[in-house]
# Entry
Amino acid sequence: MKNTILSLIALFLVGCATPGSNGIETTGEGDDFEDEIRISSYQFSRNYLGIVYAENAHPFFRAYVTKDDRNIRDLQLYVRTNNYDWMYWDEVRYRKNGELHRINMSNVSRDVDCSSYICQNAEDIVGSIPLELLEYIAQKEGDYEIRITSSRSSGHIDATIPTDEARDFLAALNDVRN
# Structure
């Protein structure tokens, strides 16, 4: 019984751990049934237990690289959001070299949790980004700021991407491509 309890505590602590700079995940490379390699930075700066608190966002990167020629099929910015109402996020804005740029985003997941007399609305959005943007963010220091907006509702969420996450993700992407 004592071993079972200790095992459950250890499993809980491992499950709650937040990975650091080694949180870049690469899958599919050694799998003969996959024709592409997937890279994700979701675990890099994941919130405690994966929870995104209300009026916040968790942006991260994903890439899909073909195995045969090692070309990037798609490079994505993926953003998990949580709000008190449906926001229908459809755009991410960022500044590069002093100019304002926009990324069109598509909703890929929507969920609602109503408890404690309030509802929280989780929306996941994704958009393709140019490799140059990832390289630009990786060259910066500190956190890189983006703004999530909607053409259907008012409000926005300002979020940050750790530049070391962009650097580590870019290094993993370059390792796969070379």
The longest strand covers residues 72-83. Confidence is low (pLDDT under 50) at residues 3-21. The chain has three helices and ten strands.
